[in-house]
Amino acid sequence: MTTTNCRSCGAPVTWATHARTGRPAPLDAHPHPEGDLAILGTNPPTYRHAQPGDPQPRYRSHFATCPHGPAWRGDRTFPTAAPTLGETITRAAATPPMTDPEDTR
């Protein structure tokens, strides 16, 4: 599986497609004992919610573990590098929302 880095916190992530919906999502790149997702295939990577007794390693959604996850889900304001706690508070208050330069609305 291909691993990239999260654009806001820099953690390694693997992108996989939900087996039922076809929507892509970032998963933490390494299995975790408390993970609730199972990767089913690797070409392309697909995932689903893990079932009791699944033999596959379990992964966590990076949406749930990223320290900047709430910003990605909310108003889309987020720092571009992993800041310290003090910087997080300062940047969150001062960072304008991301805008698309081609958005003409």
Please, could you describe this protein's structure?
This protein is α+β, with helices and mostly antiparallel strands. It has one domain (3-89). Helices cover 18% and strands 27% of the residues. It is built from three helices and six strands; from the N terminus they run ββββββααα. The protein has helices at 62-65, 69-73, 85-94; strands spanning 3-5, 12-18, 24-28, 37-42, 45-49, 58-59. Strands 1, 2, 3, 4, 5 and 6 form a six-stranded mixed beta sheet that branches. The termini are far apart.
Spell out the blueprint of helices and strands:
Elements: E1 3-5, E2 12-18, E3 24-28, E4 37-42, E5 45-49, E6 58-59, H1 62-65, H2 69-73, H3 85-94
Parallel strand pairs: 2-5
Antiparallel strand pairs: 1-2, 2-3, 4-5, 4-6
Keywords:
6-stranded mixed beta sheet, 105 residues, single chain, alpha+beta, 3 helices, globular
H/I helix tally:
3
The run of helices and strands is EEEEEEHHH
Q: Provide the residue-averaged pLDDT.
A: 79
Radius of gyration: 16 Å
Q: What count of domains describes the coordinates? A: 1
In short:
The chain is 18% helix and 27% strand. The protein has helices at residues 62-65, 69-73, 85-94, and strands at residues 3-5, 12-18, 24-28, 37-42, 45-49, 58-59.
